[in-house]
Specification:
Layout (H helix, E strand, L loop, with lengths): L7 E10 L2 E2 L1 H10 L5 E2 L10 E3 L19 H10 L4 H12 L4 E6 L5 H8 L22 H10 L5 E4 L5 H14 L5 E8 L3 H9 L20 E2 L1 E9 L4 E10 L12 H14 L8 E3 L6 H14 L5 E3 L2 H4 L6 H15 L1 E2 L21 E2 L4 E8 L3 E9 L4
Parallel strand pairs: 4-8, 5-6, 5-7, 11-12, 11-15
Antiparallel strand pairs: 1-2, 1-9, 3-4, 7-9, 10-16, 13-14, 15-16
């Protein structure tokens, strides 16, 4: 088992989703049990499903020095970065540590592929991209990180993590290692993903998309609702009010799109996160489950929570609020977990009317309030790319 790690202070964090820009509308929706999903209106021939779409991205114009980076994904990153004073917090950290001593680690599943799709509809007579689309840096998976690095004026290590739906959870693990090894003094972590044809029709081809709003852990659940989101956090050495306490990563490699039937990889990630945090399952007051509303994911994760956690634990899926934000799911749900610690609000599982057979009392349909000392956030991606994060209330709380 891994050794216990020193906690890292989370000095700033923010998330933008279909529920709104920043933490305030997110927290309000969680408290009011209000979903941000709507009937799909994305694209020229919308797939009959429900989505978590961020309003206003089409109207955003990047400043002229950044105009070459323009695409839906980078516009959402720009919008998200300007919420909750996050830009100012990074500027202050840059003054404290120096630009070269702050890492940038971002997760994304599709990055700017939507812009690449659009570019292919504009091919010239000789089958080339038109001049305005010959932006090689935009048409790569690393587009997001390069764009944000320029926006934040950071000069430290810059990483893109793309492990499907665990991408922006694993950024916390990478940041902890860089800081513990002394390579940097702080790290900006996060993730951004946006809707595009490849995502909507790709997931539909796997028969994973629901024609109704997703219903995590419901007896009649029948698939996911896709969404888009952006989130960021600033990690620094030392204690603070909110802390990263542990993480666990695994790759069970059972199947390209189906979790291990006994949840072995997910359980391995959980055990490693608990070991690094130095706590047992009885210490976890809130569990943000991956909970996609697909038949197999919910079945396997629900069984894991049922056998490992006491009945008094409060577990829920928040994907009925935001949709499944893909590579941004880890950071959006990390922010929800941090808000649970900060405010005592433990969200429910919106859209779940009747718990499916075999799910334990840990899974709650409605929100509750209470002291949250430790929160666990699960993120499980295609190919068995699993990540579990444990956040804690620090001494300064």
């Amino acid at each position: 088992m891994p050794s216990r790690i020193p906690p890292l202070h989370i000095s700033a964090f923010t998330a933008t989703s279909a529920l709104g820009v920043g933490k305030a509308p997110l927290l309000a929706a969680l408290e009011q049990e209000r979903s941000g999903l709507r009937a799909n209106d994305f694209g020229d021939a919308p797939l009959p499903t429900w989505i978590g779409r961020v309003d206003g991205l089409e109207d955003i114009r990047l400043p002229e020095p950044l105009a070459a980076w323009d695409c839906r994904n980078n516009r959402l990153a720009w919008l998200g970065l300007h919420a909750d004073g996050f830009m100012e917090a990074v500027a202050a950290a840059r003054a404290r540590h120096g630009a070269a001593r702050i890492a940038l680690i971002l997760g994304t599943s599709t990055s700017s592929i939507g812009e690449t799709e659009f570019a292919y509809t504009q091919l010239t007579a000789d089958r080339q991209f038109p001049p305005e689309q010959r932006r090689a840096a935009v048409h790569t998976p690393h587009s997001l990180a390069m764009f944000v690095q320029q926006v934040l004026q950071l000069e430290g290590p810059c990483e893109t993590i793309s492990t499907a739906c665990s991408s922006s959870a694993k950024v916390f693990a990478s940041a902890e290692r860089l800081i513990r090894l002394g390579l940097v003094d702080a790290a900006v972590v996060g993730g951004v993903d946006t809707l595009c044809g490849s995502v909507l029709f790709g997931f539909n081809s796997l028969e994973l998309v629901s024609p109704q709003p997703c219903r995590p852990f419901d007896a009649a659940r029948n698939g996911i609702s896709l969404g888009e989101g952006a989130g960021f956090a600033l990690l620094e050495r030392g204690p603070g009010a909110l802390e990263l306490r542990g993480y666990g990563e695994s790759s069970d490699a059972h199947h390209m799109s189906t979790p291990h039937p006994e949840g072995l990889g997910a359980e391995h990630a959980l055990d490693d996160a608990l070991a690094r945090a130095g706590v047992g399952t009885d210490a976890i007051d809130y569990i943000n489950m991956h909970g996609t509303a697909s038949m197999k994911n919910d079945e396997v994760e629900g069984a894991l929570v049922s056998r490992r956690f006491p009945a008094s634990a409060h577990a829920s899926s928040t994907k009925g609020f935001t949709g499944h934000t893909l590579g941004a799911a880890g950071i959006v749900e990390a922010v929800i977990s941090l808000l649970a610690i900060e405010t005592g609000l433990k969200p429910g599982t919106v859209n779940c009317k009747e718990l499916g057979t075999g799910f334990g009392p840990q899974i709650k349909r409605g929100p509750e309030r209470g002291d949250v000392r430790y929160a666990l956030s699960n993120s499980f991606g295609f190919g068995g790319n699993n990540c579990a994060l444990i956040f804690g209330k620090g001494v300064a709380a």
